[in-house]
Amino acid sequence: MTYEPQQPEQTSRTGKPMVPATPRDVVHIRIGSFALIAALAIGALAFAGGIVWLSVVMVVLALVAAVDMAMAIRRQNQNRRTRGGMTEAG
């Protein structure tokens, strides 16, 4: 193993650690991806089983999850551009 010296974590003026992504955006992406896969799977099974109304509801929920994930990714990219790669956590 090689030893690499640890860089001290950057902090904002308020003392909060500076990180490239806010925890809120990460949670939106992770939960959104789970919801997207689950909604598509349930929708496909419902369509195969002849429950069309449930498959339509699941497609709508999948679209909502996809839009939410896209907005979270967009927020992360904007924060990286405007703040030089770091945002305040918390």
TrEMBL record:
<keyword id="KW-0472">Membrane</keyword>
<keyword id="KW-0812">Transmembrane</keyword>
<protein>
    <submittedName>
        <fullName>Uncharacterized protein</fullName>
    </submittedName>
</protein>
<keyword id="KW-1133">Transmembrane helix</keyword>
<feature type="compositionally biased region" description="Polar residues">
    <location>
        <begin position="1"/>
        <end position="14"/>
    </location>
</feature>
<feature type="transmembrane region" description="Helical">
    <location>
        <begin position="27"/>
        <end position="47"/>
    </location>
</feature>
<feature type="transmembrane region" description="Helical">
    <location>
        <begin position="53"/>
        <end position="73"/>
    </location>
</feature>
<feature type="region of interest" description="Disordered">
    <location>
        <begin position="1"/>
        <end position="20"/>
    </location>
</feature>
